[in-house]
Amino acid sequence: MPSTPPATVPAASRQPRRQRRGLERMEHILDAATTVIDRVGYERTTTNAVAAEAGISPGSLYQYFSNKDDLLSALWARYVHELSTVVGSIDLERAGDRAGMTLEELTERLAGPIHAFKTANRAFARLAHRAAQDEEGPAAARQTIRELRDRFVEVLAQRNPDTEHARLETAAAMAFELFRPAVAVDSVTGDPAQDLAEVKLAIVSYLRGRGVS
Q1: Residue of 161, 163, 154 whose CA lies nearest to 110
Q2: Per the domain annotation, does 194 fall within a domain?
Q3: Is the pTM of the predicted complex or chain greater than 0.85?
Q4: Is the domain of 87 the same as that of 190?
Q5: What's the pLDDT tens digit per position in 184-213?
Q6: Are residues 88 and 182 in the same domain?
Q7: What is the rounded CA–CA span in Å between residue 176 and residue 110?
Q8: 87 with 79: CB under 8 angstroms?
């Protein structure tokens, strides 16, 4: 009686598994890059150090990322995606009612989640300046922040119905510029909570000085 040949997995079934393993390996390498950047900073980060942290050979790393810039651009893109999720989750439902939410509370509602994201992801701040060399990364980040700023303008318009829209747009843009340095550096005061308090004070003081409440 002829023997039955061993069962084989169809190529079409193997392909998704290979793709999944490849994506998992890429995420593992990006996690390792985050650890290395946290430890030694952007300039001293090398692909060899990232490969060692990931427990793979440099050659294996190069199967996924062609060089350091390619690797860190991918890490920046991941951060931008995560930041977009954070921004999308910010609840401004009651923010248009001055009686229901003070300007301080509104500023906390806007700045708090983004600052918490930066604090939890130190490599994000270290990449922020360098990302200016990558056209796609900064464009995506700017779009994410622009969407939040537009929501902020809408809220300010509800809170200040007698104020010209152009003036509110300028006020919102300046408020976000005041906040940006606190995102793009590790820490100004050495204490993340104090950093956030100082940023909120600067934003609230500016807005009130412009007659925006």
Answers
A1: 154
A2: yes
A3: no
A4: yes
A5: 777 778 888 898 899 899 999 999 999 998
A6: yes
A7: 10
A8: no
